[in-house]
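During the reporting period, our protein records have gained a structure token line. A sample record is set out beneath this paragraph:
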Amino acid sequence: MLVAAALVFGVAVGAGVAWLLVYAARHGDRAAKVVNSVVPDGVDQVLDALESAGIVLDPSNNVIKASPGALALGLVTGDVLAHRELVDLVDRVRRDGETITTELTLPRGPFGDANVVLFIRVARLGTRYVLLLAEDRTEAHRLNAVRRDFVENISHELKTPIGAVSLLAEALQSAARDPDQVKRFAKRLTKESERLARITREIIQLSRLQSADALAKPELIEIDHVVASAIDQNRVPADARGVTIVSGGHAGAQVYGDEALLATALHNLISNAIVYSAKGARVGIGVSHHDGVVEIAVTDQGIGIAQEEQDRIFERFYRIDPARSRHTGGTGLGLSIVKHVAENHGGDVRVWSQPGRGSTFTIRLPEATRASGEHQGVTA
């Protein structure tokens, strides 16, 4: 009897232990499903296809999936968000349940000096996950800033000649009975109108150079013709200042592009060299071509450019000496036009200068390949 009772008790205990083991296993499976972060079906493929940044976060704010764009922008470090501002947005969405859209300026990565401007959208993804999307708007903001600066600069530059024309017109009316005064004011009026026309012309040139079709129909160009044309345009001002123009170097170099634009760019360099040269000085134009690159160098014996100014001289409307530029009729657009002409032809422009020793500006262009006619790029 005791043996039978013990047997029944043992069976009951064994069954209880087995049930406990099964229950524990099932409970462990459920716990594992809760702990393990699995991206909902289809989200992986969507994030991989995104050009913008996409990030999925689990309830502990661990990053369980990040698109290539998110990694490229430095929004993720390890398996967590790299920026406290993004974590705060995710926490707000978890707390309030409302989708958030905002714009943030953040460093590119935790240690980056450069910033990125991001349009952020954070929303719930199911009941447990949060989806963060980020669109890079840095370039759009930069272009808007450039446009604003350009408009402000144009307004400022046009204000002076337009104001002068208006005042001189009034002065002419007042001096109608004084022939000498009329001649003096008319001469100044002509000068200001020429300056206004020059600014307008160069703005149009610069706008054309920044358009996508600036070189829609490139042609084979003889650099010798470009040099000759640019020198001819500067003969009169050079003679007036007592400056001698000399040219030399390799003949026969050819490039593909727009001859008028190249002549304008070279004319701007020669004109600047003449303006900043003393009486009796020489301005040299040298042409060379080697290793598939054509170089046109303009050298002067002028006042030179300080090192800290050399990085800015190709900016639109930038002048080293504003008073002198206005006196000589400079618009501050000449070197910017040179830069854009060179870049549109697949090349660049470089400067060497030392105060008191003069300057050398060099336009580098890809040489036309006679055999194939291919337009090859210049590498820096």
Summary: Residues 138-174 form the longest helix (37 residues). The mean pLDDT is 77. DSSP finds eleven helices and 14 strands in the chain.
